[in-house]
Amino acid sequence: MRMLLRLKDLLEYVGGSADTPPEGFRPLSPVALGLYWGLLICAILAFSGQASKFIYIDF
Amino acid sequence: MIFNTLAYFLLFLIPGAILFRGLSPAARPWLCAVLGALFFVYFSLTELGGVLGAACLAIFVWEALCSRFYQPGSVVCLLGVVQSILFLAVFKYWNFLTGLVFGPREVNPLYWQGAFLPLGISFFTFEFIHYAVDRYRDKAREGGLGQYMAFILFFPTMVAGPIKRYQDFLPKLEAPSTDWRTDWERGTTRILCGLAKKFVIADTLTAMTGHLNAADIAVADRAVLPVWLLAYGMQIYFDFSAYSDIAIGSTRLFGIKVPENFDWPYLRTNIAEFWRHWHISLSRWLTDYVFIPLGGSRRAPAIVCANLMVTMLVSGVWHGAGMNFVVWGLWHGTLLVLHRLWSQWRGARKGAPTAAGQALSWALTFVMVNLGWAFFCMDLPTALLFFRRLFLG
Questions:
Q1: Who among B186, B199, B236 is closest to A16 (CB)?
Q2: Is B247 in the same domain as B375?
């Protein structure tokens, strides 16, 4: 259970919703952050064009 | 679209956030108001509503002027609530409500052929109502005209929330965070993760959820039906939480934190907990402005159950003008009532639940929430066909 909670905290940090990483993890260095953003941008570009609007707009 | 367009980022978010940081505190609310107005007009013209939609900017101006007359205990606040409900009723429910009286569009003399939805009307009217009620209750200070216009026109949250509270927003507008580095680093990460959730997960699931229509359901293998519905349950979560991530990340670039909307709702072990962690800003709004005014949970058990049903009915109807949304709201109302009765019965008999009990509660909650999505994503006849095929073959 403790491990799952740490995983949740870690996901919240890498997802941008928590300001600090869970205990025992260091914040991402600028290089690691740049690589992470690059990876996310590649994934976004690779999957873009499936063309659907957000469900909650003019629902 | 909006949040997944380059125009949002290049024309509004990045220049807006930089300008906001550079301007004097007195000018910041007016920048938010002007940018919000431009945002509303631009995306009304390009995405939704057209010229008439753009003209609905007048609703914001009218509301801002009316808000100057909202005083504690004043009847004007109640008129403000009524006019906000009217805005929503006319634009969103006109054809639905007149259809209930006169029948389908072919025979409905009041049918509005050119009906359209102003951008974000479901959300901004709820913020209008919140302000009017909280001014009436003397729970929100008046603030300046520019500050109120910044609140209602703050573009990152204008279209689909999170639904803000004026008393939370105003101090952040007056004294935004000055930690540029953390705000931009966390905000950008959140926006990129939101976009990735939308494009990589939510949009990819469309391949399965696109089959949730009468023609496909009628001929589908029975075993695949729950997979399609589960895919929709995942899609709506990733889609809306992605939207909220982008909205919240965008506000971080301004140095402003707005309420969270999701907190791992699918991991919750009962329906009440689910609603405390799913679309949190809406759930809190419904609690404060519907459930509690009805009497909340401090009434006789039968009245509390009725209050829950009415609140969830309002939630259902708010989500859409159709009988399927009415049924979806009643579905969740019934689940909440059953959970309340169960908790009261069980609470009097036993201690803490066992791990197996927790697992069973989670599974039951997850299944019931996902079955409910059938009413959300399909019209009523199609949803009933879906259940007939799912359970009877």
A1: B186
A2: yes
